[in-house]
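Recall the central idea of this unit: under ordinary conditions, the amino acid sequence of a chain determines the structure it adopts. In this exercise we apply that idea directly, starting from the sequence alone.
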Amino acid sequence: MKKLYTFGFKQDFIAAWSRSTGTFLDHCGRFGVQRQTGYDWLKRVHQGGIDALHTQSSAPHTCPHATDEAVAQLVVAARKLHPTWGPRKLGPWLQVKHPKAELPVPSTMGEILKRAGLVPERRRRQRTPRYSEPFAAVEAPNDVWTTDFKGQFRTRDQSLCYPLTLADAHSRFLLRCDGYLHPDETTKKSFESAFREFGLPSVIRSDNGSPFASRAPAGLSKLSVWWIHLGIRHERITPASPWENGRHERMHRTLKQEVTNQPQANLKMQQRAFEAFRHEFNHERPHEALGQKPPASAYNTSSRPYPKRLPEIQYPDDYELRSVSSCGHIRWRGRTVWLTTTLGGEVVGLKPIADNVTEVYFGPILLGTLHADRRPVGLVRVAD
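Accordingly, the structure predicted from this sequence is:
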């Protein structure tokens, strides 16, 4: 540890040396001072008088790594323009806007923002451990699209708004962000619009809420029935497990910060705000998981176009086909059996697996089994 000396001790050292007849090395030894330290004190007195012996700061007078003030102002201005962006997003964005600027590293940007009072104090929260399910692999654009409703809020004219979001899981490209008065089947038009513009995904992943799922067998809804016609597999996360759709939930947090926390005057104006957010999110906002590139740089449209006519469900040749009435019934072995009104007007496939047991399918989805020896005869549903 470095030894500290008082101003009075230094004065006594200098005064005693002025009267000394011995060597400077012996003089330093008597006072217990290193020779180089003693020389330093003599030099300071010679250059600035006895007052120069007061303790001086060891901090450097200049910092060769200090950020240029003009660059610091660029960082501050960028943060004010994008108040929810952190240093790791502001850096790549500024590099595009100002390619000749020598930008500091993210940690230095963070210090600049703190000094400018632009970093709110963050509350610590417990984090949920990562959780995985055997969902479809996400290896390329359009392998999996994710969808959900961001929590409803009211615009300034008190209209309820339910934002429906649809994103590509691989590139994080936000395909749709549309506000609805109700989370019902009218949202089909957002999916149809996305299919026409971007083509069809292999899988759509959602939660278990309406209109994505229902209490019908296998959790089918009118919307998911339509997806099955299009050859899209519907994946549903475990109830009350939003982390299974973590990428989508993270995007929702950004949507809340940037848009829904500042409601617009009405639904029309709110939709304009959603579209502006979608453009910035896709084409400007750097994404950490994409090497700080925007999602548009990693997305391309699907090779499966949206068909002009809705394809019919195909079944193996050994299946017996039955039409479902508008009331949700089919005929089986001379009896009327109720399935669900969700499949009204559809065709289901029956696959006998034993003398008295038949499996019921809608496309690739097993709905349940029919048992001839049970009374009353009805569908024994598989776990949804």
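The radius of gyration is 35 Å.
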